[in-house]
Peptide ABC transporter ATP-binding protein (Enterococcus florum), 242 residues
Amino acid sequence: MSIIQIEHLKKSFGENLVLKDISMDVNKGEVVTIIGASGSGKSTFLRCINLLETPTGGKILYKGENVLEGGYNLPNYRTHLGMVFQSFNLFNNMNVLQNCMSGQTTVLGRKEAEARKVALENLEKVGMDRFIDAKPAQLSGGQKQRVAIARALSMDPEVMLFDEPTSALDPEMVGDVLSIMKNLAESGLTMVVVTHEMAFAKEVSDRVIFMDQGLIAEEGTPEDLFVRPKEARTKEFLRRVL
Ligand code: ADP
Ligand code: MG
């Protein structure tokens, strides 16, 4: 079952057509990874999916309804999507627990006690439940990213979007975050992951999408993409990164 269907999505910044014509579906329980060179439009694509950027054209269907049509309840749509950024984007003035509770109380209207319980469950999942009183500034990059994941999960998203979640981390932190993501994938969470971690993409994805210059150049199973790529552009990219 498709949760999100993207049809002929386009996005330009002024004259710069960054997403030229992107169509893809996200099915329930699926892990889709997006790979591609820097500047190919991967972040813009994720940001269009959760409407941090307004697409210039095309459709985004959520459970069959086009969220870009006038009158659609956008705040409601957004609460179904969790996002984890390269740069963590935690609230620096709040401690770890507050970071994981605030969206729940303000956006979802949960009571404090329930929000706290959900936050603690998710912090435990990412191994950060011992740090509830810490402020982001006291944490390592890897710890911050684990909190950011717990914060997003606490909103019970239907789909989690990850934009290069390990790119800003020191090498020794990367493995922890990837293994948490792998656990989430195995638990059946629907995930769209932009990553440069090719081993992760190979091992965890159901489907890999290779983006090049604002288009999906090739997509398929990890086997298709990494073992028998068809397109010259895919082969060339893999030659550079593997
Ligand atoms: P990737 O994530 O694959 O590296 P991006 O989506 O960040 O690629 O960027 C694709 C192109 O879109 C780049 O040329 C970038 O300069 C441009 N771009 C991204 N965001 C903006 C923005 N807010 N304003 C203008 N141009 C942008
Ligand atoms: Mg990017």
User: Anything to note?
Assistant: The chain has nine helices and ten strands. The first strand starts at residue 2 and ends at 13.
